[in-house]
Design goal:
Shape of chain A: elongated
Helix content of chain A: 25-40%
Strand order of the largest sheet of chain A: 5-13-6-7-10-9-12
Strand order of the largest sheet of chain B: 12-19-16-17-14-13-20
Radius of gyration of chain B: 20 Å
Shape of chain B: elongated
Order of helices and strands of chain B: EEHEEEEEEEEEEHEEEEEEEHEH
Largest sheet of chain B: 7 strands, mixed, barrel
Helix content of chain B: 10-25%
CATH class of the largest domain in chain A: Mainly Beta
Number of domains of chain A: 2
CATH architecture of the largest domain in chain A: Beta Barrel
Distance between the termini of chain B: 29 Å
Oligomer: heterodimer
Number of helices of chain B: 4
CATH superfamily of the largest domain in chain A: Cyclophilin-like
Number of strands of chain A: 13
């Protein structure tokens, strides 16, 4: 589906699930769109959607729509190419003292805290979107056994480095602030100290792996 | 290096701004940039600057700058009864200054934001191609905070002689007691109820005092909260989002790049300039937008101010 949310922008929603395959198809569509529409000024991929922004000097909505529709059709016919690069690896301390929702998530799943850590760190995630805050990545898919909806009322303050889950998504708060995801671990906040590094770490379609660390290693890394 | 000027008083919120970040949006960075782009662009044009030269955005006024060199500056935007060593300067014009002189801005009686541009632009760090400060993005230094009292400033070409220039009176935007924002229906527009869609164009809201560089919030009649949006969707400038309380907000320069609430569409980007100058309590209505007219106006503006699209 293609809609026009602004005077020189088009939003394509692919009829696919907003998961690893979905973002892979959207990134393919992004490359096709850039080739088919040479006057694009910005593209933003997120989940199963792509926003393209063009120039007021050359924008022709009918032409944009037909080119994007052709590109989308092509991307849907192909097998999505999954990012095969090395995942970004981040150390996570799954300690209930640092992760206020860890025990509740374990109880909800009917497993031990250690099982939550094992299930959460036992898979490689795909970055499905970036945004919300600079350096925040929506990653999926979280093992269905530990998936839980976000809190009804967000916490007024979540620390930088807090690892949260919301349904089958996981993410790391890059800076302290309000947040409603269930917190199950912490990445040493030193890894989020540098703004440029924090922003460059995650890119849509990239892979991320979590490596469990104990409390000593977490403290040694700066806490 | 010795400063060309020192900020004696920054006022409630004084930040460095330019046209904002385009490429960083893909990485989740707020666009940032001057809230009233027309006033900002005029300030640079008066000095013959690049249209994207870094300038000061001064919210509400209360600002003072002491010059250390002979130079010129350009003042545009909200009229803050500016003076140079106590003599009224007027606004939408360039002002020449000598070392030791102090430019003061009082508090604006009508608009919200004044702009001061400098010859060649402020000499400040950039990130993702822009010097715009976005306080909530956590950038280091002036990219992530407001100016403080005593802040030293340098600009690129302090000595370049500038004739006194003014924006022609007929091109100075008028002050308006109320605003009608052209709305481009989009996003989840079709999924709002018929009653809500009719109400969008019939109702009158006022600008809420809780508005800031991220969004102008509207107070008044509540809409239904609209359809549930499952995944955050990429936003465009001026996106109108309806949050859980049913009240619309219009996203401005420090907006996020994706948003998870139901959205009505977006406001004509050119109308955002007047919206950026609206005081809390200003009556706000929406009208149906003419897309072709908006595109023509955007193209005309880019040509007039010499803006390059690849920025």
């Amino acid at each position: 589906m293609i809609t026009f949310p602004g005077p020189v922008s088009a939003l394509v929603t692919l009829p696919v699930a907003p998961d690893r395959d979905g973002i892979a198809r959207v990134l393919r569509l992004e490359r096709c769109a850039r080739a088919a529409l040479p006057d694009l000024r910005a593209t933003i991929p997120a989940f199963n959607r792509l926003l393209v922004e063009g120039s007021p000097h050359s924008w022709d909505a009918e032409d944009v729509e037909s080119r994007l529709a052709a590109a989308a059709e092509e991307c849907l016919a192909e097998t999505p190419r999954i990012d095969e690069g090395d995942p970004v690896s981040l150390p996570v301390c799954y300690d209930p003292a640092l992760a206020p929702d860890l025990q509740e998530v374990a109880a909800n799943a009917g497993v031990d805290v250690a099982d939550v850590a094992r299930l959460h760190s036992g898979t490689t995630y795909a970055v499905l979107a970036t945004g919300f805050a600079p350096g925040f990545a929506y990653m999926g898919d979280v093992d269905a056994r530990i998936a839980m909806p976000r809190l009804t009322t967000p916490r007024p303050r979540v620390e930088a480095g807090a690892v949260g889950i919301a349904d089958r998504r996981t993410g790391i708060y890059p800076a302290a602030g309000p947040g409603g995801w269930r917190l199950i671990g912490r990445v040493p906040s030193a890894l989020f100290a540098d703004a440029a590094e924090r922003i460059a770490r995650f890119r849509p379609g990239g892979s991320v792996a979590f490596r469990p660390i104990d409390r000593d290693e977490y403290e040694a890394a700066g806490g | 290096m010795s400063p060309h000027g020192v900020v004696d008083r920054p006022g409630p919120l004084c930040t460095i701004q330019d046209l904002g970040r385009r490429t960083g949006r893909r990485a989740g960075l707020a666009p940032g940039g001057a809230m009233d782009q027309r006033a900002y662009l005029w300030a640079n044009r008066l000095l013959g600057n690049d249209p994207a030269a870094a300038a000061l955005e001064i919210t509400l006024g209360g600002f003072a700058l002491r010059f250390a060199v002979e130079t010129a500056v350009a003042l545009t935007g909200a009229d803050c009864a500016a003076t140079l060593d106590g003599a009224e300067t007027g606004t939408w014009r360039t002002v020449r200054a000598r070392p030791g002189q102090v430019l003061r801005l009082g508090y604006s009686a009508t608009g919200m934001r004044a702009f001061v541009a400098f010859p060649g632009g402020l000499d400040v760090p950039t990130a993702f191609g822009s010097a715009s400060a976005v306080v909530r993005d956590g950038w280091p230094g002036l990219l992530g905070r407001a100016l403080r009292a005593g802040e030293p400033l340098r600009w690129a070409e302090p000595e370049r002689a500038r004739p006194v220039r003014r924006v022609p009176r007929e091109l100075v935007p008028p002050e308006t007691a109320s605003l009608t924002l052209p709305l481009i229906a989009g996003y989840e527009w079709a999924e709002f109820s018929d009653a809500d869609r009719a109400r969008v164009f019939d109702a009158e809201w006022t600008l809420d005092p809780a508005s800031d560089r991220t969004a102008g919030r509207l107070a008044g009649p509540a809409l239904g909260s609209g359809p549930r949006v499952l995944d955050s969707t990429p936003l465009v400038d001026g996106t109108v989002q309806v949050t859980g309380d049913g009240l619309p907000l219009v996203f401005m320069r420090d907006r996020p790049t994706i948003g998870g609430y139901a959205k009505l569409g977006s406001v004509d980007p050119i109308a955002l300039d007047a919206f950026a100058q609206a005081r809390p309590g200003t009556p706000i209505r929406f009208a149906r937008a003419d897309l072709d007219a908006i595109r023509r106006a955007l193209a005309r503006r880019e040509r007039f101010f010499g803006i390059h699209g690849d920025r």
